[in-house]
Amino acid sequence: ASLTKFFRRSLRRIGRREGIDEASAAETTPPRAAPGRLGERICSLGSAGQFFFEYLVVVSLKKTSEGRYEPKITYQFPKRENLLKGQKEEEERLLQAIPLFCFPDGNNWAPVTDFTSETFSFVLTNVDGSRKIGYCRRLLPSGRGVRLPEVFCIISCLGCFGLFSKILDEVEKRRQISMAVIYPFMQGLRESPFPAPGKTVTIKSFIPESGTELIELTRPLDAHLEHVEFQALLQRLSPSVILPIFASAVLERRLIFLAEELSVLSQCIHAVAALLYPFTWAHTYIPVVPECLLDTVCCPTPFMVGIQLRHLERVLEQPMEEALIVDLCEGKILQAVGDEEEILPIKLQNEMLTSLSKHNNNNNVHTPEQVNTLVSEAFVHFFVRTVGHYGSHIKWNKSGSGAFQERPFCKAISSKTCRKFVKKFVKTNMFSLFIEEAERSRISQEGE
Fold first, then answer.
1. pTM, full prediction
2. Looking at the domain assignment, is residue 431 inside a domain?
3. What are the pLDDT tens digits along the chain (448 aa)?
4. Which of the two ends of the chain, N or C, has the fewest CB atoms closer than 10 A to its terminal CB?
């Protein structure tokens, strides 16, 4: 209960800029992109050579005296020792939050004989602004009779969903043999450096009766797309639905996504946030909202959240301001502000629609990596066409600091529809943050 109060109190503190600095465990934001020219491919998360993960935890459901089941951490590797007081407090807060996001569905569980394993992820932001990603595999342990599902959660500061999904495949395979077989595999992984983009690391792992296995883990070449699966979004939503969602996100509105499966929510929301590249969503961002935090939708500031479909009625009862509500199961928008189709310049909107439709029809032809690249390029091209001239309107002084000239920047756009869009976009937090980094980038380059 105290943890829930902490989350709610923190969520209400979010302001347009202050929310970034005051981020707490429930106030989650995607990684910030590094400064660079618009359209450049920039690695924003996951430098080569880092540890793959901080720790692996197992979250199990434990019966309370009231007869309900509550998620508790029952295994942690490695155990942290000799932590300073501040580090210990931060870890305790993080370990309290993890079970809530591993079982966001609530406490209405019962032992079962059959359960389809699922993979999803969440993002936690510390008070200092640093981020940790939880990669989860919820599965039913091997055995006979009725059993409760458990979650294996890998906590890492590195964003690479596909790679960690493969690691969780190996964890699940070993779990069906014995928990004891998981430890040496994770130890070998922890001792291996995180590979550079496009590179492979090989992990040796011994499995009883199978001998030593060599497991190859390859990191995608395009680092900024390694936490994204646009194919999952295209399979759920048509291009004509994706564009109003993109338009709402670009103007930093409130977005609610609905689905029953946690994997669908996390994959699709990560994909929507990635459409904004090279800009970054800088407000409340919770791919899967735990049941006890449903009043997040009452937050008056922008948010992008995922909620299980079963809670739709409760969400609609909340006194929330205007929001775009998207049903990922039915592939349609349930509630809109009404002006979404008028936000983007019509010519560019049609170009993106044509591009998305082409990629959507060829889903069986392209690999997931190719789909990621093609979709991302369509949206990066949109930003290049509308605001790609920003660098020409940064005035540099002799000391090397820059000042963005907003009025000349907007006046330089010849298209009336583009200018109308850009005048709104320059007022967003994501554009301001991007420009602030651009104004500093010349100083950092000269200091190198």
1. 0.84
2. yes
3. 444 443 444 444 433 333 333 233 344 444 444 444 554 433 344 555 578 898 899 999 998 888 888 999 999 988 877 777 777 777 788 888 899 999 998 778 888 888 889 999 988 876 665 678 999 999 998 888 899 999 999 999 888 888 899 999 999 988 888 888 898 899 999 888 888 888 899 988 888 777 888 889 888 877 778 888 899 999 999 999 999 999 999 999 999 999 999 999 999 999 999 999 999 998 888 899 998 888 888 888 899 999 999 999 988 888 888 899 999 999 999 999 999 999 999 999 999 999 888 766 554 557 888 888 889 999 999 999 999 999 999 998 877 788 999 999 999 999 999 999 999 999 999 999 999 988 887 644 444 3
4. C
Given a contact cutoff of 8 angstroms between Cβ atoms, the answer to whether 224 and 33 are in contact is yes
Establish if 19 belongs to a structural domain: no
For residue 390 the two structure tokens come to 């920003």
Q: Are residues 287 and 211 in the same domain?
A: no
Residue 171, token pair as written in the block: 């964890």
Phi-psi label, residue 20: left if phi above 0, alpha if psi -120 to 50, beta otherwise: alpha
305 and 209 inside one domain: no
Same domain, 367 and 271: yes
If asked whether residues 213 and 361 sit together in one domain, one would say no
CATH of the domain at 107: 3.30.450.200
Domain that holds residue 417: 228-447
